Amino acid sequence: MLHADATGSGRDRWPTAFDTSRPGAGEFTRLRIQAAIARRDGSSRQAVVHLVWAGTDPGGSYAENRVTDIYFTLTSTKGHSVWTPQPLR
Fold first, then answer.
1. Would 48 disulfide with which of 41, 67, 86, 89, CB 3.0-4.6 Å?
2. What torsion, rounded to 10 degrees, do the Cα atoms 42, 47, 50, 53 define?
3. What three-state secondary structure class fits 4?
4. pLDDT digits (tens, 9 = 90+) for 55-69
5. 57/61 Cα distance (integer angstroms)
């Protein structure tokens, strides 16, 4: 999902997760995850994944230590549990 947000590629996989009017969305290349941690977010059916990442910005500069939090809710579909990403905040 971070790749889809930062580069714009693959956003159709999560049509409700992205605000395409958000400045800077979909402009980075050469992404690299620098650190990641996931934890519960208030209940056992909600989680947040905290990512620290780097990539090349539209001007060609390498930007490091960028932060993105991705929120998920555990849902059930046809008897299978699935972590569903929520709209980026």
1. 41
2. -160
3. helix
4. 998 889 998 988 889
5. 6
**Phi, psi at 7, each rounded to 5°:** -105, -20
User: Can you tell me the mean pLDDT for 58-82?
Assistant: 89
C-alpha neighbours within 13 Å on the C-beta side of residue 84: 13
> H or E segment at 69?
strand 62-77
Using the structure block, give the residue that is written with the tokens 């650190």: 35
Q: What is the DSSP letter of 45?
A: T
Integer Cα distance of 65 and 39 in angstroms: 20
pTM: 0.73
